[in-house]
Structures are given as structure tokens and as C-alpha cells.
Amino acid sequence: MAIAGKIKLSKSEVSQSFNLDEIYGRKPTSQEVQNFIELAKERIIERSQSGVDLNNEKFKRYSEDYADFKGVSRSDVDMTLLGDMLLSVNGDATRNGVKMSIDGDEAPKAFGHMTGFKGHPTIKNGPKREFFGLTNDEAELIAEAVQEQTTSFFDQIDIASIVRNIGLVVDDN
Amino acid sequence: MTTKIKITGLDVALKSTRLKIGRAIAKGNFAGEMREQMIEEVRRNGLGDPLAPSTIETRRYLAQHNTTDKAYSASKANLTFTGALLNAMTVKFLTSRLSFIIDASTRKHKRYKKGSKQTISHREIFDALEKQGKNRSLSELFKRSRFLSNLTTRLKKTILDNYEN
Fold it and tell me: What is the ipTM metric for this complex?
């Protein structure tokens, strides 16, 4: 049985539950829950910033206007303008595992990206970019990594992608 | 003269990852490398507006009585005469804040032979240069795309070489 539940999508809630009982055969410890949340969060951020969606496909390209506004090429899609939406990925313990979600204020924005801006008053047929959530394979890998108390696999993925985006600026504050 | 340089693009990294990145930067002594690169950039490509004719004349006169740095040229605005001023520049890295602090020694600058009898500290000289309004602040270096790109590449390499899970 899959441990990754279906992604819930509404303007007020973007979430996905994971049944860790199913893989561990017992209730997860609070430390395991916490580690799962951390790694799931890192995985979603890392994958999104590398330009790939939940289905391991490249995100749809930006429009010419938006790419100009952001100052990047049309194919450089990383779901990050200020970073607020990806930073709002979070998780909570549930009865049998973890529920990952987008924190309140950013949920409508995430809903828009996940659904191609369904119901949006001005954007019609917007691009669908499914950045949030984990596949069952990803969730199982994370659950196993948590149980083995090793995070090196995910750390290695993260550091290369994070370092790629860094820069240096004068801090005027 | 304190100038603060911060690392951008780490907003989405988790706190634990940022801390490890900070440790990698400290371990690789990137602050020392940044200092060297800044000095080389100023000496090679200059900093700020061209020197006034009177300044060039004074530099030529003083050069007859003092040992000058190999990067010295009378007419070049590269903050270099004996080399002591740029050598007094310091770059300190704050691991937890992922920021670099550029400052200078408070030691007095050595008097030039046949020069003014007044002595002030290296830091005061940098402050005075900033106040001149001739773009001689060291922060100007960080507006140069080639310098910045080169420095960022070195920073990335330092992190990847020294990052420990």
C-alpha cells in the first residue's frame, strides 16, 4: 500500500499526508516525524529549484513578459521569486505519520500554480506547475533514510542546487 | 569604513544547511581569498575617478624618496603607493550571519619620507577616501560584474570543496 496520500487542493489548503505506520509497521517516533518533515521539505524545495515538477518533468516555461520581469531566461523556472512560497512548505504530525502543507497565506498562490490558476479572475488557462508534494517513491526513500538515520543522500542533492543560486551583494542595512 | 557583504540565494536553505555552508566557508578561509582578490582587483584595475594632476605630481615627488610597491604608477588611481594601505585591509567572515565584514587596521599609517608629518590610521584613510565622493569606496568593487562573477565562482567552489554533511 502506498504511503503517500493524494494531494488535497483548494484555495485554502494545499496538502498531502504520509502514512508512516504503513512503512515502519508501528507509530513513528516524534524524532522520526520531525526528520521526515525536514527531509520532505528539503526535497520539495530542491526539486522545484532544479526546475523539475512532481512527475519529474521540466516546469512549463515562463511567458516572455514574466521572464523579462524576473531577469532570467524563459526556461529558468525555479518557483522562486522571493522564496516565500517554497519557504512556506511545512509539516505536522498526524495520527499515523505526517501531513505536509503550504502555510496559510501562500496556499492560494500554491493552489494557482498546482492547478493552472483554476478559478482565477484574470488568468485563464495558466501554466500548471505541480511543484508541491512527493511521489510514493520519494516518500519511501525519505522514510527509509529517516529510519536509517542518514541524510547524506539528500544533503548532497541539496548543497549542489543551493550553491548554484548563491551570490554576493553589499548589505546596505 | 566598515562594509558588509552578504551572501544571497540562501533564503530557502534550511537553517542546518546554512550553518554547514557557513562552516565550509570558514574552513576554506574564503575571507582570506576574498581579501586577496579585492587587493589584486584594485591594484590591477584601479578604483574611482582619475587622480587630480596635483596628486599625480605629489606621488611622483614622494616616489623619489620612498620605496614604492610594484603595482604603483604615479597616475593610476589604485590606492597603491608603498602598498601599506591595501595591505591593512581586513575581511572577516561571520559564520552564523553568512556575511563578510570589510574593515581596516586601526594602526597608524607609516609616514612617507619627505611627506606630511601628520599620521592617521589606515581606517581613517579609507574613511576619508569614501568621503571624497570619487567612487573610491571598496564597496564599488562589488558593482563590477566580472570581479563579482569571479569571486562568486570561487565562493561556490570553496563551499563545495569544504561542505561536510
Answer: 0.85
